[in-house]
Design brief:
Largest sheet: 6 strands, mixed
CATH topology: 2-enoyl-CoA Hydratase, Chain A, domain 1
Order of helices and strands: EEHEEHEEHEEHHEHEHHH
Number of helices: 9
Shape: globular
Helix content: 40-55%
CATH superfamily: 2-enoyl-CoA Hydratase, Chain A, domain 1
Strand order of the largest sheet: 1-2-3-5-7-10
Distance between the termini: 49 Å
CATH class: Alpha Beta
Amino acid sequence: MTTTPLVRRHTDRGVAVLTLDSPGNRNALSADLVAELGAALDEAGADNGVRALLLTHTGPAFCAGADLKGGGAGKGPQLLVDLMRQIAMLPKPVVARVDGHVRAGGLGLLAACDISVATAAGSYAFSESRLGLAPSVASLPVLARADRRAAARWIITGERFDTAEAVRIGLVTAWDEALDGILDGMRAASPQGLAASKELTTAAFLRRLDADADELCRHSARLFASPDAAEGVRALLERRDPPWAL
C-alpha cells in the first residue's frame, strides 16, 4: 500500500529542501515523521551535491512537538534527543524556516538547527508548564542558543511570543528576508569550511547533550507519568482548561 510521505525533499542549487508535510497533526513529532526526517537528513548528508539543508513546513504549524494524540508522549523525548543529535552531528548546516506556530518540543527542533529564519506569522510557546510538564529535552538546544535569562520567562509561564521576541532572545537567527543571503553564503563556502565552522558552533550544544540528555529524558518520563500531566494532556485534547487554571 502506498502511503503519503510526511517529509518531502527536493534540491535547489545545492540546498536540500526538507518539508514537513503532516499538517493534519500540525507536523507533530510522530515516530513516522521522525523516522522519515531522519532518513532525509541522512540522505542529504551523504549527497555530495548538497551543500546545506533547509527545513521548512506545510500548513499553519512548523511543529507542534510531541504527538500526544498518537500516544507518542512516552517515546517522544528520546526521539527528539536522537533527532537533535543527528542534526548537530550532520557535517552540513541546517537552516530552519518558520512560517507558523512552533510549540513545545517543536522549539527544540527549531533550536537544534544551526540557523533559523521566520516570518511575522511565527508564533512560539513552551506550552509544557500548562500541561503539568516541562520542556526537559527541548531545553537542551534552547538554553544553549538563546539568552537564558530572557528564555526563562517563556519556559516558565508558557506564554505565547512572536518572531520579534524570538529574534531578540536568539531563539531565531533572523527575519525571513535574510534567507536568500544565508543560503547564498553557504553555496559560496567550501564543504570542508562549512563542516569545520559548524563543528565550532555546535560544540557547546553537543556537550550538553552528552552530559544531560539521559537524565532529562528520565525527568520527562517522570512528569509524563504524573497525575497532573495525565489531566493536563486530557484537558488539551478535550479543548478545555485544566482544573488548576485560574
